[in-house]
């Protein structure tokens, strides 16, 4: 690996013009209205994990299309609510995994919910949520599923699921809706940015090396997956660039970031060839709310890893202290 993107001073000033559709907000208002037309159908089933320091529930709720979405809700074993709530989104092709894997935030005194991203969960952590929606021809992976039209694009369903995940987690009696934090890394960071725009009353967000940002630059700057899936699709489907970029313009994390208002913690790695630094800084620099960014000069897509988790453990309580 090497430094391959802009120098850090240029990154800190980078504010690209994003081709945002005029009906961006109307599209998402319609998407969420359609999603909320379905009963939330939230269920919390206690599970035994063998961990005496926390309690865990197997969660199912209705996401986009009323489709059942899974998750784990955990809280300190003997705590009484309401507790500050962390809603977490995992990385690309991961899953909710097993419940004992998510002890950090409950050990810090938080309620915690991890959402299972539909259709994923076979490339790292295991998942349990199918995606019942088909699509036309697509490149292997998830980035080009339904990419001919924003109405059918895969991440429309995922982001709508994520908003419902916040609503579901907030409905647990141990959760404090007023102290809700959305966070995640890579794909999870991109989803957190979307949720930060679509759920305006969050207390804070944390986006670690976020994916799904500045598509127009990412797909021509890196040949690493998952962005390379889009280039691979266009390699075969010649002449569809305008259609594809139009669809992606409804899902760009830079546009979501520009609508964020809660305090935000970002991270970026300057040798990251999966989520190039300029794409992360494009989102960070567009963010109008109070914000910080942790920079890891000699790291790739692992970013700060456990060091960023430690930074979040310091930063999140401070951000929540400002919540009345």
From TrEMBL:
Pfam families: AXE1 (PF05448)
Location of the Acetyl xylan esterase domain: 1-316
Source species, domain of life: Bacteria
Protein name: Acetylxylan esterase
Entry-linked InterPro entries: AB_hydrolase_fold, AXE1_dom, CE7
SUPFAM superfamilies, alphabetized: alpha/beta-Hydrolases
């Amino acid at each position: 690996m090497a430094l391959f993107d802009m120098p850090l001073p240029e990154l800190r000033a980078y504010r690209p013009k994003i081709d945002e559709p005029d009906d961006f907000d109307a599209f998402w208002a319609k998407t969420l209205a359609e999603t909320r037309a379905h009963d939330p159908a939230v269920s919390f089933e206690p599970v035994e994990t063998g961990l005496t320091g926390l309690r865990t529930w197997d969660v199912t709720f209705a996401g986009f299309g009323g489709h059942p979405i899974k998750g784990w809700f955990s809280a300190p074993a003997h705590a009484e609510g309401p507790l500050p709530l962390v809603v977490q989104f995992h990385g690309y092709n991961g899953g909710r995994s097993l419940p004992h894997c998510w002890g950090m935030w409950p050990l810090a005194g938080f309620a915690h919910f991890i959402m299972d991203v539909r259709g994923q969960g076979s490339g790292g952590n295991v998942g349990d949520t199918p995606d019942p929606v088909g699509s036309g021809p697509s490149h292997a992976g998830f980035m080009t599923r339904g990419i001919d039209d924003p109405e059918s694009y895969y991440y429309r369903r995922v982001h709508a699921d994520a908003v419902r995940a916040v609503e579901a987690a907030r409905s647990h009696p141990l959760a404090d809706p007023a102290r809700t934090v959305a966070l995640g890394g890579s794909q999870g960071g991109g989803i957190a940015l979307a949720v930060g725009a679509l759920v305006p009353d969050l207390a804070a967000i944390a986006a670690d090396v976020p994916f799904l940002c500045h598509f127009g630059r990412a797909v021509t700057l890196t040949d690493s997956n998952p962005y390379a899936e889009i280039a691979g699709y266009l390699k075969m489907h010649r002449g569809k660039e305008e259609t594809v970029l139009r669809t992606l313009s409804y899902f760009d994390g830079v546009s979501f970031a520009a609508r964020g208002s809660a305090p935000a913690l970002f991270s970026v790695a300057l040798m990251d060839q999966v989520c190039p630094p300029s794409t992360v800084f494009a989102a960070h620099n567009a963010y109008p709310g109070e914000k910080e960014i942790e920079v890891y000069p000699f790291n790739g897509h692992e970013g700060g890893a456990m060091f960023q988790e430690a930074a979040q453990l310091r930063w999140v309580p401070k951000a929540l202290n400002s919540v009345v």
